[in-house]
């Protein structure tokens, strides 16, 4: 679907042709530039769907993570590991969610140094609305059928694995 301000040509393809002329093989540059651009498109779509609910994608991901946890709560440290975020970022996300009444911090039952973050009933309700909003727009991922999505996920997983993102 054409968006406001869409160009009459593919700027990444144009850049690749110029790269080819001036620098050399352009496949890697074109691939990386495409991934970066698609990330912008997806973030913009998802953030647009979540904004009316007072959420960002990062805060939404934190709510999903807590909802998936067996007890509906996780230690901050584990949240950081799973979301692959710096502890400071996790603190900021949890602060915002707590300020909005979507999560609460509770003392860890066995580890005095750890704090658990748990979903509130308001958090669960907001998460349901947010999930409906992002799935209604397919998370902004237009133009791929299920096989295409599977193929893209697999290709990106290969890059993530090769870069040490997971074992």
Q: Could you explain the architecture of this structure?
A:
The protein has 167 residues and is mainly alpha-helical. It has 2 domains: 11-52; 54-137, Arc Repressor Mutant, subunit A. 61% of the residues lie in helices and 8% in strands. The protein has helices spanning 11-22, 27-50, 57-68, 76-83, 87-99, 121-136, 146-162; strands at residues 73-75, 103-107, 115-119. It has a 3-stranded antiparallel β-sheet with strand order 1-3-2. Helix 3 crosses helix 6 (121-136). The chain is elongated and about 65 Å long.
How would you briefly describe this protein structure?
With 167 residues, the protein is mainly alpha-helical. It has helices spanning 11-22, 27-50, 57-68, 76-83, 87-99, 121-136, 146-162, and strands at residues 73-75, 103-107, 115-119.
The main pleated sheet reads as: 3 strands, antiparallel
CA-based gyration radius? 20 Å
Q: Give the N-to-C terminal Cα separation.
A: 38 Å
Q: Considering the protein shown, what is the CATH homologous superfamily of the largest domain? A: Winged helix-like DNA-binding domain superfamily/Winged helix DNA-binding domain
- Written as H for each helix and E for each strand, in order along the chain, the element string is HHHEHHEEHH
Overall average pLDDT: 91
Poorly predicted sequence stretches spanning 5 or more consecutive residues: none
Q: Based on DSSP secondary structure assignment, what is the total number of beta strands?
A: 3
Shape: elongated
CATH class annotation of the largest domain:
Mainly Alpha
Helix content: 55-70%
Strand order of the largest sheet: 1-3-2
Number of domains: 2
